[in-house]
Each structure stands twice: as C-alpha cells, then as structure tokens.
C-alpha cells in the first residue's frame, strides 16, 4: 500500500481546507470480499467517500470537492469519519430521490448491519425494522443492468429470507468472479441460509474495488 502526496480540498459548506492522502497502490491479494460487497483487508484502511468536514462538521462527499485555493497546510484539517448514527440521519436528506449518494449511504448501512454476522459460525439473522426497511429500499434503487448490482439484489433478497425471489437476479448471464459469487449465493438460497459469507474466489481479485476516492 502506498500513499501519494497530501492534497488539499475545499469544504463545499464552509470553504475550509481538508487534507487528503490519496492511496496510490493497494495490494488486493490480502483482501476478503464478502457477499454484501464489503471488502475487508488488514492492509487497506477503509476509504470512505462520505465524511465530515473537520472545520464545520457538515457532511462532505470527498470525490466532489474542489481543490483548495489556499494551499495552506497550517489551516488544513483532517476530515472526520461519519458514524452509523450520522449515516442514518443523512437518509432524511438523501433518502427520497434515487441517487448515487443514496445508494452509497444505504449500501454502507446494510454492510454495517451485517458486521455482527461476519463470522464462520452460523447464527440466526434478525433485522431491526429500520435495517429491513433500508434493505428493501436499497433493493428498489439497484440497477439491474449492472452485474454487480444484480448480485447485491440477490444477496439482499436472500438475507431478507425471500428465497423464492432471490434466484431471479442471478438468472441473466454473469461472468468471471461475478459468476463464481452467484453460484455461492445460489447454494445458500437452496439451503435457506440468510447469513452474510466470505466469497471464495478462484480467479484474480484484481477487479475488487478498493473504494479509492481520489
Ligand atoms: Zn466545512
């Protein structure tokens, strides 16, 4: 893993400078891909696209920020991470109109809800009302023309216990690692298992998304 030179971005709310360290190289071989699309790696810190401004604490989408005109290191601050409560409260603002923002927030909330089930041992899966609602709303905004999002749709339905519908998104042709993952999801649909699982990938993991934001 290699970081590039620090760069400075301007908060779109208060104009303050935020320090960013772009990740230049990631060794994807040490990463684990989970069935909900979450990538877990001891070598790669999570790079969030949605954070809080260190100055005004408002939410900022890092890829959308302009370069800071003040190239001034003294005034630049680190951004802060958003916690789960922060993400839930942003749904008031982003939850109505389908958008990439809403997709990102809902996907992250689903992945956070799955954290307690990320283990080898089978445990019963129970969703809270808002977790279940979020999963259904996420399902409704997925793009069925995208192979990745079809896998997520099947996985959401499986995790919701809707085993009859879960195979549907997997029926259209899938290739490479998407095909491998679809077989593993199908297997669990047949056995009526709802728990998130680690994907076993034969082919290269080069196509894992690192979530690199810069
Ligand atoms: Zn700000």
Q: Quick summary of this structure?
A:
Helices cover 34% and strands 14% of the residues.
Question: Can you lay out the helices and strands and say which pair or pack?
Answer:
Blueprint lengths: L1 E2 L3 E4 L6 E4 L2 E3 L6 E2 L5 E2 L9 E3 L6 E3 L4 E2 L9 E2 L1 E2 L2 H11 L5 H15 L14 H13 L5 H14 L2 H4 L9 H15 L24
Parallel strand pairs: 3-10
Antiparallel strand pairs: 1-4, 2-3, 2-9, 5-6, 7-8, 7-11
Helix pairs in contact: 1-2, 2-3, 3-4, 4-6
The protein binds zinc ion.
The domain tally reads 2
Give the termini distance in whole angstroms: 15 Å
Q: Major sheet: size, sense and barrel closure?
A: 4 strands, mixed
Helix content: 25-40%
Secondary-structure element order, as H and E? EEEEEEEEEEEHHHHHH
Mean pLDDT: 89
Number of helices: 6
Q: What does the overall shape look like?
A: globular
List low-pLDDT spans.
Answer: 205-214
- Nearest-angstrom radius of gyration? 19 Å
Number of strands: 11
Strand order, biggest sheet?
Answer: 9-2-3-10
Structural class: alpha+beta
Descriptive account of the structure:
The structure is a single chain. The chain is of the alpha+beta class and 214 residues long. It folds into two domains: 2-81, no CATH class; 84-190, no CATH class. Helix content is 34%, strand content 14%. The strands form four sheets. It has a four-stranded mixed beta sheet, with no helix packed on it. A hairpin with a 6-residue loop joins strand 7 and strand 8 (59-61). The model is unreliable at 205-214 (pLDDT under 50).
